[in-house]
Write a structure and sequence with these properties.
6-stranded mixed sheet, 8 strands, globular, single chain, 5 helices
């Protein structure tokens, strides 16, 4: 009887181990997600560093914190940075292991980014146009090619430090809506302002994209 109990205990432990391994394997595939929550302070993300920390924390919360995560955000002015230069070389896969782009050029061209493939770190689909509330405006501060847009107008809400005055370029994760480029995932139009209320007022919630570089 003792032998049988020991045998079943070992089998149970092995099954638990295999189950845990399966979860970790799924987590390890993820190299791209859209944040399930924003900073709560509009487009004030604490700069690029704060945004990166937010990506890292969300990834860690689902067991994917062993990678170096970076926010897909551009900054302007002296020392400005292009979002496309912050995210590594690809390929990038969502929570389910589906490849959304093989490399930077494909990401900004013929990619596999849709409402159904742009998942949160938890594997959920975010609200888009037609959902209540609509939250499809995603902060990027970038042009269609993923570069910072230099000029007099604010396109990054003060390089992601403002929750009041200013504006930021946003994309539509559901690939539909209004603006100059309504189907663009990264550069559909400018936000009305930088506060949480202003972002929500035009169909956003302060979300942004996170990529794990390689």
């Amino acid at each position: 009887m003792l032998v049988n109990k020991t045998f079943f205990l070992v089998v149970a432990l092995l099954l638990v181990g295999f189950g845990s391994g399966a979860v970790l394997a799924q987590d390890s595939q993820m190299t791209f997600f859209i944040t399930s929550v924003g900073s709560g302070n509009g487009a004030d993300l604490g700069g690029l560093e704060g945004a990166d920390r937010h990506c890292q924390a969300l990834a860690a919360s689902v067991g994917a914190g062993d990678k170096a995560w970076h926010a897909y955000l551009s900054t302007t002015g002296s020392g400005g940075v292009n979002a496309r230069d912050r995210i590594g070389s690809g390929p990038w896969a969502n929570f389910n292991g589906v490849i959304v782009a093989e490399n930077v050029d494909q990401l900004h061209g013929d990619n596999n980014l849709t409402k159904e493939t742009i998942l949160t770190e938890k594997g959920n689909i975010s609200n888009g146009r037609g959902d209540d509330p609509n939250m499809h405006d995603i902060l990027t501060g970038s042009g269609l090619d993923g570069t910072a847009q230099m000029g007099e107008a604010d396109t990054t809400c003060g390089n992601w430090t403002s929750s009041g005055e200013g504006s930021a370029l946003v994309g539509h994760h559901d690939r539909q809506g209004g603006g100059a480029n309504p189907t663009s995932w990264n550069s559909a139009h400018a936000s009305r302002g930088c506060s949480q209320a202003n972002l929500q007022g035009t169909g956003g919630n302060g979300f942004f994209y996170c990529f794990a570089g390689r």
